[in-house]
Amino acid sequence: MYSNIWRNFISAADKAANTVILAVGPVFIALAVGLIGLATTVYFTVVFPSFYVWDEDYIWTKIYYYLGLIFSIYMVVCIFFHYYMAVRTKPGGVLNVGTEQSDSNDPTIQDLFLELEEYQEYPKTCKKCHLPKPERAHHCSVCRRCVLKFDHHCPWIANCVGHFNHRYFLLFMTYLVIGCFYFALVGWKPFLLSLGETGWEWSMPRPYVALSFLLAVAIGLALGGMCSWHYYLIITAQTTVEFYNNQYARRTAKAKGEVYVNPYDLGPVLNLCQFFNVGRNL
After folding, report:
1. Catalytic residues, which ones?
2. Residue 64 and residue 52: Cα distance in Å, rounded?
3. What keyword terms does UniProt attach to this protein (predicted)?
């Protein structure tokens, strides 16, 4: 009896936590946009003019200035664009028959049925949403639906990372990590000045500059590790969920004297091409 009570308590707590994660998604998005916006403002008002000095007498200084400006604008546009696309793009899912369709480029559920029936007599069914479960699809406990090529649910985009938005999510992280390290590289002098009491010539308050620099370093290191992890998963043709499933499969196969082979692994180069949708169709 006590074990049932405990299981019911854990299940209720898990549902409550997932509900909270789903509800606070817009707050995380606003916080992310606010922090990136703050760092961008600090960069263009303090860091950029302190690092790229305009000199009328030297043409190379002007070229250097414009190249830095173009690069900076390009990075900011890429960060915000890919973040917007990661948030707004549906990851892809299995929906109720005859009532809805998934993303505009997704096949209907009837087409999924037919495709699944070609490979097995009885298609897999999700135990939670009771819908057909395509290969590499997993159920998200936060969104309460199956997601195609599910990787994880990210509260910072209030969305699942799946088949159709994983590329945007990864490129957002890539550009943000590069931007953070670049900010730290060219902004360390204004940061040191912001810690003192003299020598401050910009209208931006010192605490904002110090906070932006520390955020750039912290986020660059933390997100850099996560970004590297995702690139490893991509070149090995895995999602985060599949990585742990494959680890278990490898241990099981090893115990039987066998070798587990990931059926989706085409090699690092082809895996990257497939993920970024470049080269020939696979």
Report:
1. 154
2. 8
3. Acyltransferase, Lipoprotein, Membrane, Palmitate, Transferase, Transmembrane, Transmembrane helix
